[in-house]
């Protein structure tokens, strides 16, 4: 199990993992808009693909309504 901090940029032209920021936070752009959990669903999909795990293995632990989130990868 691994916990990472993620900075999410919603409503981007495409979804991608940008890389690590200076403080170690992983920056991720998602195409979905930040309403009704759409951006969170897209974030889970992008992270699962990036880390090579299933979507069920990605859990947003903290910050579901914020741009900075703590995500647990099992």
Helix/strand-derived category reads: alpha+beta
The fraction of residues assigned to DSSP E strands is 35-45%
> Would you count the extended β strands for me?
5
Radius of gyration: 11 Å
Question: Could you please describe the fold and organization of this structure?
Answer:
The structure is a single chain. By secondary structure, the protein is an alpha+beta fold. It has one helix at 38-51; strands spanning 2-9, 16-20, 26-29, 58-62, 68-73. The chain is built from 1 helix and 5 strands. A hairpin with a 5-residue loop joins strand 4 (58-62) and strand 5.
In short:
The chain has 74 residues and is an alpha+beta fold. The protein contains one helix and five strands.
Element layout with pairings:
Elements (H helix, E strand, L loop, with lengths): L1 E8 L6 E5 L5 E4 L8 H14 L6 E5 L5 E6 L1
Parallel strand pairs: 1-3
Antiparallel strand pairs: 1-5, 2-3, 4-5
Provide tags for this entry.
single chain, 74 residues, alpha+beta, 5-stranded mixed sheet, 19% helix
């Amino acid at each position: 199990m691994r916990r990472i901090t993620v900075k999410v940029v919603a409503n981007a032209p495409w979804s991608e993992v940008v890389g690590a920021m200076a403080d170690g936070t992983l920056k991720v752009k998602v195409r979905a808009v930040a309403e009704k959990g759409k951006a969170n669903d897209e974030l889970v999909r992008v992270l699962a693909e990036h880390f090579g795990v299933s979507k069920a293995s990605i859990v947003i632990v903290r910050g579901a309504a914020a741009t900075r989130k703590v995500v647990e990868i099992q």
